[in-house]
Design a protein that fits this description.
Elements: H1 8-21, H2 31-43, E1 47-52, E2 56-57, E3 60-61, E4 65-74, E5 80-83, E6 98-103, H3 104-107, E7 111-112, E8 135-136, H4 139-143, E9 149-159, E10 162-170, E11 177-183, H5 190-208, E12 216-222, H6 226-234, E13 242-248, E14 257-260, H7 268-279, E15 286-289, H8 298-302, E16 310-314, H9 336-355, E17 358-361, H10 384-394, E18 396-400, H11 401-408, H12 412-424, E19 428-430
Length: 433
């Protein structure tokens, strides 16, 4: 992979994509999900794979599609006081149809709100056979529900369809894969869901334009949980080829860059990610967390019977930011510059992964660097002269570039750059993999 940098066009195009996708109503399987993939396909060519409702995927079953025709609550005067048409978080996903007049006491058990965030509409879902319905509203809206009786109407389409996975596959010199995933199933949430999709899309646009890639890179856009399980169940033949990967989510808010390690903690993807954040991001603030079984789709890839090392790149982790799973997770929360910095972080991680190699010396003793045009005055400040000495003493074929960079707490990029100069001078050579 060439040492290229993202230009600001990726920031601007990513923000435009975010604005286009945000208003669309999406869930696990529905028309809005397909529409969103088709919009992304205008930016990054995707293969859209379809898996029918009712299919068994390991221990799960792919659900039917769920689309909302209308959903509202009217007061005694016939005024719509809550309307799905005004905000698609007002109806919990996969609510069942209902029509009738209810007393206030009968209606309240079907209402969700947040006491601590009186202006926020919560996001709720009733997936996988929960035979119920629920409206979501802010506490302030609930307090405006005056009267003793209310008319309720929920009309939805619930029908067999297809779970869809958008995929971009970029072949490399080897068929060993690095997998990046993002989920698209959350309605009208910018940070949780869409930010990861936008970052992944723009990074893969960048990767697609490179002339050289060592690994094969696969980006999949999925509905959370059921999409990851479907991908794994339907692609068992390629799982041994996946060396590791990243879930990208919650990466457009002002929080510091954050990496959650894989189940293994010290897998190649973990080491590359932590090194890139510490040494290749110009001193940006970052946090590294150990693996936890609570989280997003890293659960599925790290799970027993799969055990693919999968980390997660974020900024503010899901439940720790107050706007999470509410209407406040909107385009005011995320900013183009934070998305752009996260894109850079992912590119830097993939650069380390793609370019890591083992060099072996072709010299005995210490080479005469001036003879080869490589002499730089030595200073013990991890400058080029110091890196020269590191390469002389460490490139004996037993450690790769990342291991050497970790040992000496220096930049992988700088160490690789000088290693390539040594290789060009004929002093070291790549050890066959």
């Amino acid at each position: 992979m060439e040492p290229c940098a993202l230009d600001t066009s990726y920031r601007d195009d990513g923000w435009y994509l975010m604005e286009r996708l945000f208003p669309i109503h999406r869930t696990l399987v529905n028309r809005g999900y397909l529409q969103s993939l088709q919009i992304i396909n205008e930016t990054l060519p995707l293969t859209i794979k379809e898996y029918p409702s009712g299919d068994e995927v390991w221990d799960w079953i792919i659900p039917n599609a769920w689309d909302v025709k209308e959903a509202w609550i009217k007061d005694e005067n016939g005024n719509k006081v809550i309307d799905f048409a005004n905000n698609n978080l007002h109806l919990a996903a996969y609510s069942i149809p209902f029509s009738g007049v209810l007393s206030r006491e009968e209606l309240l058990p079907h209402i969700s709100y947040l006491e601590e965030l009186p202006d926020a509409i919560p996001f709720e879902y009733l997936y996988y056979g929960k035979n119920d319905w629920r409206f979501c509203m802010s506490k302030n809206q609930l307090e405006m529900l005056k009267g003793s009786h209310f008319e309720v109407k929920i009309e939805v389409d619930y029908y067999p369809s297809y779970l869809r996975i958008g995929e971009c596959l970029l072949p490399g010199e080897t068929d060993t894969e690095i997998l990046v995933t993002a989920y698209l199933c959350h309605p009208s949430m910018a940070n949780d869901s869409l930010s990861g999709v936008v970052v992944g899309t723009e990074v893969f646009r960048f990767l697609s334009r490179l002339k050289h890639r060592h690994y094969t890179y696969r980006f999949i856009i999925i509905p959370e949980t059921i999409g990851a399980i479907t991908f794994l169940a339907k692609h068992e033949e390629i799982l041994p080829r996946i060396r590791g990967g990243f879930v990208v989510t919650c990466c457009g808010d002002p929080g510091p860059l954050r990496y959650k390690k894989s189940y293994f903690g010290d897998a190649f993807v973990d080491r590359a990610a932590v090194h890139a954040l510490a040494h290749e991001m110009n001193g940006a603030d970052f946090v590294v967390e150990d693996f936890s079984p609570a989280g997003s789709d890293e659960r599925q890839f790290n799970a027993p019977g799969v055990r693919i090392p999968f980390g997660s790149l974020m900024r503010s982790r899901y439940e720790i930011y107050p706007e999470y799973h509410t209407s406040l997770d909107n385009l005011s929360l995320v900013r183009p510059e934070y998305l752009f910095e996260t894109m850079h972080a992912l590119v830097k991680m993939l650069y380390v992964i793609d370019n890591n190699t083992i060099f072996k010396n072709k010299f005995r003793g210490e080479p005469f660097l001036s003879k080869h045009g490589l002499h730089i005055p030595f200073k013990n400040d991890k400058g080029a002269g110091f890196l020269n000495q590191i390469i002389i003493h460490e490139t004996d074929g037993t450690k790769d570039v990342l291991q050497i960079a970790e040992k000496h707490a220096c930049s992988f990029y700088s160490l690789l750059e000088i290693s390539l100069a040594f290789e060009k001078a004929g002093l070291i050579e790549r050890k066959p993999s």
